[in-house]
Amino acid sequence: MDIYEDLISSVKNDFELKVSDLAVGVRWTTVKTKKIGISITFDNYKHATGIEDAGNFNGKKAKELLEYLRTFDTLKIGIGLATLNSLIKTPEKYENINIFDYLVEKGKDKKILFIGHFEDIKKLEGIAKKLIILERKPREEDLLDTFQEYLIPESDIVAVTGSTFANKSIKRILELAKGKFTIVFGPSTPLSEVLFDYGVDMIGGMITDDDDKVFKIISQGGSLRNFKNYVNFITLKRRDL
To answer: What is the DSSP letter of 90?
Structure first.
């Protein structure tokens, strides 16, 4: 089993769809097929040398861009992930749950570990029995993400940024989190029940109200704060905490 292969297979009926536009912004990457999909632009200034097909993506088949998910170039993986997210059908049934409010309600006296630093984590201070934040670039009281091998198995709840799909760390994280209540959330997160097959209990992803506006903002270097009024965050659940 491989989560990337299963995600790619889940959209096989749309492999022949054409890409109508693509933009790699400073913070986010977005691809238009039948709707727009988004991925974090993951440290492309350090890890990538540019894209050889730049300027020639419009009209390519979606399956060509999905191939980028099989590479180890973070800039290409982001394009592949955004393409995947543009093909995943918006779920008919979902909930509007704020992940942090949910954890405030359900996480009392639990050991909660976050992969990724979120400002709203402070809501859980004094509620969680223990609160750990792992980051690739630690700040404040964050810990380095390489400590996950020791700390994830000791946690009750593991909350993971969807950006881990863009740097391919998600596979190992989910292996370590097996049996824990696991949440994957953020704009990069595929809204696919395939994640449930890999032990994810709650999926928090993003749908847009105005594809053209969000695409334009990202293409002009915008961040989430610039397009947050044009999107909605939705949640899929396999089970409750």
So the answer is: P
Q: What is the C-alpha to C-alpha distance for residues 70 and 91, in angstroms, rounded to an integer? A: 25
Provide the 8-state DSSP code for 98: -
Task: Tell me which DSSP letter residue 138 carries.
Answer: -
**Tokens encoding 74:** 């973070």
| Residues 63-99: tens digit of each pLDDT | 999 999 999 999 999 999 999 999 999 999 999 999 9
Q: How far is the C-alpha of 64 from the C-alpha of 28, rounded, in Å?
A: 20
For residue 189, which amino acid is it?
T
The percent helix, strand, coil of the chain (3-state, each to 5) is 40, 20, 40
Tokens coding 80? 């592949």
The CA distance from 198 to 145, in Å, is 21
> What is the SS3 assignment for 237?
strand
Half-sphere exposure of 73 (CA within 13 A, CB side): 14
Query: Pick from 105, 112, 108, 160: which is nearest to 136 by CA?
Result: 160
Whether 208 contacts 82, CB under 8 Å: no
Sign of CA dihedral 44, 48, 49, 52: negative
The string of pLDDT tens digits covering residues 22-48 is: 999 999 999 999 999 999 998 655 556
Residue 121: φ, ψ to 5°: -60, -30
Place of tokens 């979902």: 94
